[in-house]
Amino acid sequence: MKNIDNAKVKACRMSSFILSGSVKRFNSGSELVDNFFKSEALEFDEKNIAATTIYYDEITEDIVGFYTIATGIVSIDTSKIDLKRIEIPTTRDTMEEFPSVNLNYFAVDKEYQDQRVGTAMMYHLFLDLVKSNYDHGIGFSCIFLEALNGAYDFYEQIGFEPIYPYQEKMYLSSYQMMMSVNKLIDLVRLDDGFY
User: Fold this and answer.
1) Beta bridge partners of 97
2) pLDDT digits over 119-147, tens only?
3) Do β-strands 51-57 and 9-13 pair in parallel, antiparallel, or remain unpaired?
4) Below-70 pLDDT ranges, the chain
5) What is the span of the domain harbouring residue 182?
6) pTM, 2 dp
7) Which H/E stretch holds residue 79?
8) Total domain count for the chain?
9) In a domain, 172, yes or no
10) Beta strands in 59-96 (DSSP E)
11) What is the DSSP string of 88-156?
């Protein structure tokens, strides 16, 4: 394991990252995530299908982690959820589709896991999204993701909620989760963030 305190971490878009050997060495422990990162993320980033942000150590040139986001629409069957628990952006009965920022992939290299790196990366993403919302008027109602089974607790700890909580007992390979933009803004307003 490498100590994140010894790293000089920088963030950049994947399309501007030139250390392809570092990409090949990345290992989050999830074959699905690693295959996307090594095989498709660059093309998606260059074609603006989805934007991938890389966090890397300037000293060792190791990739610490990455996330990939894209805009989308989240469909929520409001008849199957507890409206007191999940904050729906409108009270309009006929509206069940909402603009979202989709967090498609999120990973930390195994060498840097269990050091709160993922939490710091997520907070950086949250700051960027709130800034986009305020500074550029980019409207979205929530961040949406499908948490892989092993990552569910991490996302829940950060503040994401399962859209359909009854799925928790089904032992699925992934779970739909979201965080409303209002909750996101409240988290970013906290003086100490997640720390």
Assistant:
1) 75
2) 999 999 999 999 887 777 787 888 999 99
3) antiparallel
4) 78-95, 166-170, 190-195
5) 4-189
6) 0.87
7) none
8) 1
9) yes
10) 63-75
11) -S---TT--EEEEEEEEEEEE-GGGTTSSHHHHHHHHHHHHHHHHHHHH----SEEEEEEEGGGHHHHH
